[in-house]
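FORM 7B: Structural annotation worksheet

SECTION A. Query
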Amino acid sequence: MNVIKTIRPGQLGSRRFERRFGKRLCAVRYRESGCGKKILTTVELVIDEREKPSPGTSLATVNAYRKAEPVAVCVGYEEQAMRRLIKQSGGRWSKAGKGWVMRRESAITLGLGHRIVEGLVEECTDIDASLEL
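SECTION B. Predicted structure
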């Protein structure tokens, strides 16, 4: 597929995609299909953003730190079996933040990665996550 034209955000032809994808839009590309009978429109999106590790820091170190950091997980009151699993893995209930505080690795192991609420752990001031988990 050959790229016929690339349009950056803000240029004519990208406005409808900007309305749809917002700040995540990087580029709109028009491509010619392999057989040459169709024109395809593709978009390039930003799907993840994180801090770049400082020079000399290995990616394995950054990932190990991220796995060990405390996160807050939302689990419904009626999900008693899940709450029991969280308690068994060392999770603690925070009344202040109204969420379960546990290590990121434990949350992902239990299949709760999609329930992690980024930033909520800072509101869980009644739990000292550095000592208790």
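SECTION C. Observations
The helical segments are 15-21, 59-68, 80-88, 104-109, 129-132. The CA atoms of residues 42 and 76 lie 39 Å apart.

SECTION D. Sign-off
Analyst initials: ____
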